[in-house]
Amino acid sequence: MKRTLRTPAALVGAELAPVSQYPALERVAARYAVAITPTVVDLIDPADPADPIARQFVPDEAELDERADERDDPIGDDAHSPVAGIVHRYPDRVLLKLTHICATYCRFCFRRETVGRAPALSREALESALRYIAQHREIWEVIFSGGDPLVLSDRRLRAVVARLAAIEHVRIIRLHTRLPVVDPARITPALVRAVQAAGKATYVVLHANHPRELSPATRAACARFVDAGVPMLSQSVLLRGVNDDPETLGELMRAFVECRIKPYYLHHADLARGTAHLRTTIEDGQELMRHLRGRYSGLCQPTYVLDIPCGHGKSPIGPNYLRRDGKRYRITDYTGRRHAYPPA
Ligand SMILES: *Cc1c(COP(=O)(O)O)cnc(C)c1O
Ligand code: SF4
Prior knowledge:
CATH architecture of the largest domain: Alpha-Beta Barrel
CATH class of the largest domain: Alpha Beta
Structural class: alpha/beta
Bound molecules: pyridoxal-5'-phosphate, iron/sulfur cluster
Radius of gyration: 21 Å
Distance between the termini: 66 Å
């Protein structure tokens, strides 16, 4: 059986990185977690030096290049963490971070300073987190984040879901995961049952960034959720050299919709350390969104969002189609032409 690659030596051995980069990659790996599952290795074309899958997962010496605006905690989770494992930024929902482990580590991860290193939530810390949720009646939704919550055992997931299901005011359980892409065999019927509870709605949000990630095995894994009555949404990160061209982004959104996954968020890449080579400008992102709106089904439209540093939350960042022009509005259509619209 093939193993997950976890060291620069293993990457060089698998011909995913050149020997000449080895010393630099040792420095990258000492700083940030590295793991590439056999499924992801199979998605990579080693003959393509610009392969969009390799770019997301194979460490690069460019990660040693840090910029002044980059931060350890780019979206400000720490500022809103009342107890370990909980991030409570918005009134009606919390993140519950049960683990910091992922099956595969993304080179652009906004939690790259903690993933793969911080310890899992202890039994006592989990009790405090559950107590916090039970005591705050405004919490309508609990979002399993991390790390990747689906690396946990079915037993552990079932136990936490059952505890949440017993809390009357929690109505929605949402899981953010990359497992259907990086380890589709993990999405077993037993796992799909483990994350559901009578009387509560479970949603799964899939993180994928390139249409090739939606392989036949991944599509089948997603179908196991959807067929079981678990609606799916997508989140993608806009990444330079991965999905920042109109056709790739459009095909990615179509692939989601074909899998019955409703495109939800396109994230502008966060200011995580050593990720400048993967970021685009916001203008690039808005131009791509205009292109999607003009040429693809309404089902294929995600919301382009920016997570504001220091914990101020996510805001949609356009493009904006409506402008006030004196007494009237000017509204832009999908081809870019402007039209007047009367005030109320
Ligand atoms: C992103 C995020 C959420 C979820 O936001 P939605 O807009 O509901 O998807 C919730 N809490 C925190 C702290 C987040 O960063
Ligand atoms: S799966 Fe999510 S949490 Fe894990 S490394 Fe990738 S972006 Fe980070």
